[in-house]
Amino acid sequence: MAQVQSEPDVIAGDNGQPGGPPGSEGIVGRSPRELIIRRFKRDKFAIGGIVFLVFMILVAIFAPLIAKLVGHPPNDVTFLRQMTQENGLPKGPNFSLKFYFGGDTAGRDLMVRVAYGARTSLIVAFFATGIAVVIGVAVGLIAGFYRGKVDTFLSRTIDVVFSLPILLLSLGLVSACGATKDGCLFGLLKPGLLLVSYVIGLFSWPYIARIVRGQVLSLREKEFVEAARAQGAGNLRIMFRELLPNVAAPIIVYTTLIIPNNILFEAALSFLGVGVPDTTPSWGKMLNDANGIFTVAWWMMLFPGLFLFLTTLAFNLVGDGLRDALDPRTAR
Amino acid sequence: MKRILKLVAVVAVAGLVAAACGGGNKSTNTGSPSASTGALQSGGVLKLAIEADVDHAFDPAKEYSTLSFEPFRCCLLRTLVSTNGQDASHDGDILQPDLAALPQISADGLTYTFTIQSGIHYAPPFDNVEVTAGDFARAIARESDSQASANGYSFYYSPSGGTGGGIVGFDEAKGTVPSGVKVVDDHTLAITLTAPLGDFPWRMSMAAMAPIPPVGNSVLGWATGHTKDYGRYLVGTGPYMFKGTDALDPSGPPSQAAISGYVPGRSWTLVRNPSWDASTDPNRPAYVDEIDVAIGGTAQVLANEVDNGTIDMEFGGVPPAQQLAAYQADPTKATQVHATPSDGVRYLAMNIALPPFDDIHVRKAMNYVIDKDALRRTRGGPLFGDIAGHFIVNSLTGDINANYDPYASPNGQGDVTKAKAEMALSKYDTNGDGICDAPECNGVLTITDSADPYPAQNAILVASAKKIGISLDVRAGDRYTFMYDKCLDPTSHAAFCPSVGWFKDYPDALTFGPPTLGSAAIGPGGCCNYSLVGASNDLLKADGYTTTDVASLDAVFNKCTVMPIGQERLQCWADADKAIMEQAVPVIPWLFDKDVDLTGSRILNYTYDQSAGMMSLDHVALVGGGA
Amino acid sequence: MGRYLIRRTLFMVLVLFIVSLFTFIIFMKLPAGDPARRLAGSRATTPQELQAIRHSIGLDEPLLVQYGRFAKGLIPWPGFFLNKQVYFSWANNVPVSEEIYSRLPYTITLSLGAAAVFLVVGIPIGIISAIKRRSFVDRAGMVFALIGVSAPVFWLAYLMLYFFWFKLGWLPGIGVPAGEPILKSIALGRFILPWFALAFTFAAFYTRMIRGNLIETMSEDYIRTARAKGLSERRVIFKHGLRAALTPVVTMFGLDLATLLGGAVITETVFNIPGIGQYTLQAIFGGNFPGVMGVTVLAAFFIVIANLVVDVLYAFLDPRVRYT
User: Fold this and answer.
1) What is the pTM of this model?
2) What ipTM, to 2 d.p.?
3) Are the beta carbons of C216 and A316 separated by less than 8 Å?
């Protein structure tokens, strides 16, 4: 769990420890938009990250086209006897058969599967992060706005979630609910990509909630809130029309930084043998497939891992770039 | 049946462990064990490793993992009768006298009388206690206690166990000696059965029937107070014992410290049992002085340890393909690879009560269309077995069906033409083009194992079935907690269970029929009739099936079960095999399994124990006596 | 301080209660099917036998009583804690405590070793990067940190094994032989690759954190004052800057170490180290609920204790913090 649970620390990494003491630096997004964009554009790393992400998203969208171009769909086993040895060991890249990344133990095209794996990773990451942001923003807004007992309760809840052995509980949830056709919790959690997304989202919202709460706590004393209240704005209106836009910047930054964590989370679950369903290609599962034979079938380890790594790296670059652009004090 | 648990034990760990359970062919290893024994020297420490421990900490009444069968037979527990620990070509499948002579059978076939050798003593601290008939009655009494034998195989002794019959009074005994068991005198034991069972002596060769030393007048003797953990206090009569057995206190309480030489999940250390007398035991040469077994590691890890000499072999595992390839390619090392038929079949089970498999033509078409060769390739290729054309392994039916293959295809790669012709006869192919066009063929619920090599096999199966218009909805999970759970529960409506296999418990075809395709073996109470062959109308209705009339093989099996051992019985089972393949067709057998072992350079006289399905630990010796 | 401690302790108990409740529900109640059937495995079982199994593990009692039995075994008091009547492996009856104690040395070795590596690597790189901003060292350090936070540990482990064991043969591969004394395993270098693989990600976090903190601290007023007093730059950094910048590290380190002690599941799995993490996975996939409960709560226990210790320690390190 260490590995996975610690990933979110990247979020807090420069800001002190979640659950830790006060004194962390906050993120303030009051610079004019043009300034931010200009600063971001100057960040070559972040631009590189954007370019790679666009590439990866295109790969994910056009995965079927890639499969068509090389002529082997992701679950096609007709090349089994060409792409594996008689003892079942897979064969490496073969350009004449258009297996540019080599084959796996079922003789499937690894390149096509890596492309389809991008779909899995991105869908799960975006969806899970979406869930986390919705919950996190709601909890953070309410806790920061109402303060008092509500805040105490929600903050303690956040503390509790931070103390949970997240990986273990996720393993249990996914394997319990992925086992039957009907899922569990009265059919609320059905097996599939969504199940994994829900579970990941369920455990990653506190990061957002904590950030939003902190921001709201300081913002709610500001004049513009008083002004809105004087004009007769209700609580909901103040929260969503006045406060939310002002915490949008940090939310965007932290969302960008949570996505790579969630990608790694999904990969870890799949690597450990739960995660997405069997027929869905996933980078984590492909790395699991490489276990035990990665010394003789290096391509099975190299390519899925490389794309997993590059995708998380790209998200981290973009996230760092956004943060630096929004808050020049931390800039490189 | 036991072998199924071996699969479990090895695969269970996180799906990261490579394929479990290998198999070998009729000895590609050369040289008969008996021919080379002359030069063998005793002594030395045999160092082995296993990936995971036995399932129930060596409690002989509970333990059903293959891994335990060999240590029990070779080393720890002698039984009334047993085998010589060699492969089938060296009579390893023939019952031999052990603590007793072969039994006398009454004329009605119901009473078996065993005459027990005199002068056999237990391992220390019971080294002055002689083995007597009452000690075996004690073992039967313990077996009848459902808590003590939970997870074991009491169905072989229980009249209600669905195996043709059992010991009179066994079900009522509940931890006492059943009325059908008579201790005639110290060296004579008579057992009466509810029905004649030709294979009963084999059932008495299993570890649960090993004698338990007496303590005072208690019914269960030394096992008293050890319902859960007898394996950690085990005292037997074999050539070896767990190190530290002698430190037990025969008069101490059950809560005393367990034997130190067995650390569950970590190690087994077997040392010579000073009470064992070779002159009373022709079955067990027992060459090495000590057997150390380290627990933990993947096939890959243990392969490295064999390569660098840290251990002598991985016991009961599957050597990685790359290691096998390297050894086979090297003439000096090729003899270290051994492949022996393990009397097991791997097959795909279809639920004959569920559409589309409720139509026999669909089931036959599936038998034609599956690419069995591709499946075998994912397991490691021809070294790991021969493509199966029928269900019961040839050794159990005297090779009568050796050339029988009703759904043969070129190179075992599937025959789409014949499959389509068969499919065209089915009600699910309305236009007769050989492609299923009914909605029932869409999303056929397939429950399977998620560990290697099954993910690769799933892809192959999906591709094969698609050729006749069947699309599989594959759900994979842990073998133990998911696959068996769903496949054995008729209410889960699993249509296709492709990751199953079956291995004999002892060399009789009975262990292949009723447990896999008999109506008593339908879950969730029974195991392992995944296909619901012989399911009653009531059961089907209660479990939500619309089909109410399914084929049954019970009558076919019952006819063979009661026959005495001999040619007629073999023929009967061979005919039953044909009935399975042509009348009921609930299964697609694809591999007659071979066990593949890779031994380190110190091991001499590799011998395959056909009864346990593993390397024989008492027959191997070390180069120069381990010096 | 006293009231604070009491409040924190109560909160700890609450957290552990919630963790145990979640674990009970997720692992015991959510999976479809009957745990007794799962326990019986793939074999014929009569209804009476099933009942016997159910009774032997207390499944025939009401839900609350079942949970209560497990909860009682979590009270950290001799005689209660992981008591053998409840906390034993359902498969082979081995007490969970026996399993945990025999595996703890491996997990401790792995954790402490990795912690040493990431501190020794992460802190200096972070400091140098902060002091020499925009230098080559800083750039290289930041690239290292970015790679570290982005690379999944299982892939790193594969790569390290592929090169340092398989290709170059410099270091031992996967696995710690069961019979080998742990000190010998360490001496033979069996832990080197796991230490580095596990430490890599952490080192990256620490580098980033320390760099960020130090840069921020160095722009504080009191540093400027120190400089104005004419102190040497070295003195300013090491006497004033680092003290403030490293305080949060203590916090983070405590929590990370606690997390690691709860079992580094992935690292232990890839390198096949017989520690707590590996046991956890085996228990989860083997349907061994008492084992799962034991290790999950143990992991949570480490975390909450670390939280408490770290907070108290923080008060001593940073005089600005006062707890009431």
Assistant:
1) 0.85
2) 0.87
3) no
